[in-house]
């Protein structure tokens, strides 16, 4: 990582990607090789001469979406050039635009329009992270990892990071807290099985086993964010009231309530379902008349 003065680096980052590019140090590997006139600008560059960005925060590219972009490129061409830095003669490295780069390969292009800029490793990291975050094309977990890298590798505080990416401190903190979730939940966020809303609710469950139990139910039953929040609230309220050890687990209580609702719908009358911590209990089905009783018995296939 290049040795840059911290104040200059942070100020450049605060002014956006353009400032980072303009403030790039005058010394670069290619400067002793290339004349001034060809160091920066827009050029048609061979795809074979471009390396991927090692600082790219996006870890997953949807194959179907890439194919759709490739088909669009075959018809419309590249509308927005990618951005690269020059490493050496006929050797470049991506700064931003990897989806366009990969889709162009699929589309069978040999060359691609590119902005050629001068940037050191530190600026590469900052530009790649911020460019992707600002485009909002990362999933919640990738954003969280990007924030963490900006804090750790660019020596920023949360307040400073919020200013850089246009988010308040609370939002930044919510993303960073995702990294404290169990690996299986993080994987579900990455694979878009869980939304940021689901994840924020699960973060508030301290007990990992309870957290995983609610997570599993949320995925299997495709629960809405509101229902997950209700489960977490019920769990936390039960904990706050210090129930007896024999109390029914909130997740189990939620399951029993759903069964009770299904029974009530099936029999067309209010049904009482009671169970204890040992899964023993009773079901009460009230009836209002002899004909109502016969109706329930028919549903039970008793008569």
Describe the structure.
This protein is α/β, with parallel strands linked by helices. It has three domains: 6-165, Conserved hypothetical protein from pyrococcus furiosus pfu- 392566-001, ParB domain; 181-240, no CATH class; 250-299, no CATH class. The protein has helices at residues 6-14, 17-22, 63-76, 98-107, 121-135, 140-153, 158-165, 169-177, 183-190, 196-203, 208-220, 225-240, 250-267, 290-299; strands spanning 41-46, 50-51, 82-88, 91-96, 111-117, 272-275, 281-284. The strands form two sheets. A five-stranded mixed beta sheet has the order 1-5-3-4-2, sandwiched between helices. β6 (272-275) and β7 (281-284) form a beta hairpin. α3 crosses α4. The termini are far apart. The model is unreliable at 1-38 (pLDDT under 50). InterPro entries: Chromosome_partition/occlusion, HTH_ParB/Spo0J, ParB/RepB/Spo0J, ParB/Sulfiredoxin_sf, ParB_dimer_C, ParB_N. Belongs to the ParB family.
Number of helices: 14
**Rg calc:** 28 Å
The CATH class of the largest domain is Alpha Beta
| Amount of helix | 40-55%
Count of separate structural domains: 3
Order of neighbouring strands in the sheet with most strands:
1-5-3-4-2
CATH topology group of the largest domain: Conserved hypothetical protein from pyrococcus furiosus pfu- 392566-001, ParB domain
Strand % is: 5-15%
How would you sum up the global shape?
A: elongated
Helix and strand composition category: alpha/beta
Q: Uncertain regions: pLDDT < 50 for 5+ in a row?
A: 1-38
CATH architecture label of the largest domain: Alpha-Beta Complex
Overall pLDDT: 77
The run of helices and strands is HHEEHEEHEHHHHHHHHHEEH
Distance between the termini: 82 Å
Strand count = 7
